[in-house]
């Protein structure tokens, strides 16, 4: 797994870690900028203009009050300046409102763009990672947290922008207050800092809690899916699992609720206390200003300006401090997001790959190959020594868990061997480009995906570059016997499959299998690998599929995994796996003659038909 960016102890995030996390912000800005450069710049410019508005409005307000007081003292004076000032204030108010709306609009547009952009980045990066990384639960938690960041992080951006905006606004207001009485600023700080520390503490507790809950949250999502999904409904009904699932959901969600509500109550109580403290600070300052006005040391206009400035400053500062905690918290969450992009695939890619042999001359050779899954002690494959010759059809047989699927995954470099090497035409498989290898292999796994897409698209996934090549798709369908199915469907090749979307048609297990098989014929692969390709087919369909398969793969290599010996015996050679190692290898006749495990299992199955 990739190194950890910032080792954050989930139970205790210190102020320093919080500050340290702010270094993630430039990266956030870069990502937002990449989502839309011009919207980001316009939003920033508008905020700079907007930051001058509070002090401008207060100052014009002060001038108006002073004019009114003057006219009050000297009735009949010239009102021209007063009304001009009122007009200016009106203009500023309208401008402020307009700026706010534009900023909000840009923020929400940027938010959408950012979320789309980062979701695509996550998918793109995930595509580069290894299969075993997906099979690791630590990785999965990280992926999950990264996914959650795609929506929330644009809020972080607008918070950071608002922070800059408020900071400039405060600069203007502080200048005004300091000119009047610098002590007021100290009072302001004393009233605000406890609130900030309190907020900061509770935010870190909240983050620690959310983070420590990630695995359970994944389980909660999974349980929710089990309880209400088209794919699980059948078993849930048959086995009467509803109560079992709902109880599990209830236990988990109650635990979250208890933890979260404890923290929320504590936070709210302390929040109230600190806010009273803040109000006390404000009213103390207000008292000082009123006193000085009565003493005649300041004008009524200045009183309104200073009282307004103080109120605004206090709310700006409180807002900024609160926002700081959520910005730094957001920046800590950002760690998870950036950490995900730091995970690198372990499967090495040749820097200067060799040209892929076409045609393959010597075939694939396993040289004492062993493989152990990540974090597992048992070997899934061990001491594999055999060659798949060009044009040869090799059947893999063996009991459940014998290592058949793992062996073909190694051929496709979904994993690399833990020990030993796989050679292709005498050269280590790692020296060829992985894309070339996959292009030359047509692999259909037993747990192939039933894409909730059209029939055409379901077949085209076997060679997505040919998605618009309808003739090829239909040819592949006829080769796998899925053409009869296309005939039968109301919308033929454009028929949406699966029930998840409108007008989708669900297929039978065998029908799905024919569709999946068609994927193997979508490209002119030199080697075909079919992992239990006919398990769901009826006897006649299986026979026909193999007749076709033999014709269509004439001269090509193929690996067939099957529990049906009627299928396996069609291969040129049969490799019997046991506990990950090669127990026997030979032709059907040779293995029968040998009278070993194959012969035993073959007779056992044959007896079943007598
Ligand atoms: N992703 C995985 N992570 C950890 N262990 C795995 C994983 N996949 C398979 N294994 C283990 O590796 C061993 C070989 O599994 P494999 O799927 O290759 O067997 P198989 O012969 O194809 O079995 P079957 O006939 O049931 O499909 C099994 O013991 C299995 O538990």
UniProtKB/TrEMBL annotation:
Listed transmembrane segments: 171-197
Entries under SUPFAM superfamilies matching the protein: ABC transporter transmembrane region, P-loop containing nucleoside triphosphate hydrolases
GO-annotated cellular components: plasma membrane
Keywords: ATP-binding, Cell membrane, Membrane, Nucleotide-binding, Transmembrane, Transmembrane helix, Transport
Gene Ontology MF: a single term: ABC-type oligopeptide transporter activity
Subcellular location: Cell membrane
UniProt feature coiled coil, ranges: none
Domain ABC transmembrane type-1: 42-329
Its membrane topology: Multi-pass membrane protein
Segments forming domain ABC transporter: 364-604
Main location class: membrane
PANTHER family on file: ATP-BINDING CASSETTE SUB-FAMILY B MEMBER 10, MITOCHONDRIAL, ATP-DEPENDENT PERMEASE MDL1, MITOCHONDRIAL
The protein's name in its UniProt record: ABC transporter related protein
Organism: Mucilaginibacter paludis DSM 18603
């Amino acid at each position: 797994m990739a190194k950890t960016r910032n080792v954050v102890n989930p139970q205790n995030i210190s102020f320093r870690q919080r500050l340290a996390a702010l270094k993630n912000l430039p990266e956030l800005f870069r990502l937002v900028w990449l989502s839309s450069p011009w919207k980001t710049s316009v939003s920033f410019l508008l905020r700079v203009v907007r930051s001058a508005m509070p002090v401008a409005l207060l100052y014009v307000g002060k001038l108006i009050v002073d004019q009114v007081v003057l006219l009050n003292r000297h009735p009949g004076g010239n009102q021209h300046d007063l009304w001009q000032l009122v007009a200016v204030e009106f203009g500023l108010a309208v401008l402020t409102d307009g700026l706010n709306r534009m900023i909000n609009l840009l923020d929400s547009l940027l938010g959408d763009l950012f979320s789309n952009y980062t979701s695509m980045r996550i998918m793109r990066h995930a595509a580069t990672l290894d299969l075993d990384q997906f099979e690791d639960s630590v990785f999965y938690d990280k992926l999950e947290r990264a996914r959650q960041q795609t929506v929330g992080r644009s809020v972080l951006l607008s918070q950071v922008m608002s922070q800059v905006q408020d900071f400039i606004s405060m600069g203007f207001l502080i200048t005004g207050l300091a000119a009047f009485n610098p002590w007021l600023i100290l009072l302001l700080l004393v009233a605000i800092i406890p609130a900030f520390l309190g907020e900061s503490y509770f935010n870190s507790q909240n983050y620690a809690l959310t983070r420590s809950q990630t695995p359970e949250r994944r389980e909660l999502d999974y349980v929710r899916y089990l309880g209400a999904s088209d794919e699980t409904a059948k078993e849930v009904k048959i086995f009467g699992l509803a109560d079992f699932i709902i109880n599990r959901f209830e236990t988990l969600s109650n635990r979250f609720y208890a933890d979260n509500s404890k923290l929320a109550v504590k936070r709210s109580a302390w929040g109230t206390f600190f806010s009273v403290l803040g109000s006390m600070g404000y009213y103390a300052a207000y008292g000082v200003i009123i006193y000085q006005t009565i003493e005649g040391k300041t004008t009524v206009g200045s009183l309104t300006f200073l009282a307004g400035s103080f109120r605004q400053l206090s709310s700006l500062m409180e807002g900024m401090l609160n926002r700081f905690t959520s910005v730094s918290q957001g920046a800590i969450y950002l760690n998870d997001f950036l950490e995900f992009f730091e995970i690198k695939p372990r499967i090495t890619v040749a820097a200067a790959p060799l040209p892929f042999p076409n045609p393959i001359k010597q075939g694939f050779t396993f040289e004492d190959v062993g493989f152990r899954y990540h974090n597992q002690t048992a070997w899934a494959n061990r001491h594999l020594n055999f060659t798949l010759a060009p044009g040869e059809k090799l059947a893999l047989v063996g009991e459940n868990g014998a290592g058949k699927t793992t062996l073909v995954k190694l051929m496709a470099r979904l994993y690399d061997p833990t020990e030993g090497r796989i050679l292709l035409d005498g050269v280590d498989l790692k020296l060829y480009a992985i894309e070339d290898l996959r292009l030359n292999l047509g692999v259909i796994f037993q747990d192939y995906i039933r894409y909730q897409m059209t029939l055409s698209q379901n077949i085209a996934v076997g060679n997505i570059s040919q998605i618009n090549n309808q003739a090829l798709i239909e040819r592949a369908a006829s080769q796998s016997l899925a053409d009869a199915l296309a005939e039968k469907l109301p919308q033929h090749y454009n028929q949406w499959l699966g029930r998840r979307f409108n007008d989708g048609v669900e297929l039978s297990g065998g029908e799905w299998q024919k569709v999946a098989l068609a994927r193997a014929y979508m490209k002119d692969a030199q080697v075909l690998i079919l992992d239990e390709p006919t398990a769901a087919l009826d006897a006649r369909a299986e026979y026909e599929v193999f007749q076709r398969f033999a014709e269509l793969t004439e001269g090509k290599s193929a690996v067939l995994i099957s529990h049906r010996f009627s299928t396996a015996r069609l291969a040129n050679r049969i490799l019997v796996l046991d506990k990950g190692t090669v127990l026997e290898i030979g032709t059907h006749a040779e293995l029968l003659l040998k009278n070993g495990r194959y012969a035993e299992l073959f007779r056992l199955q044959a007896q079943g038909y007598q």
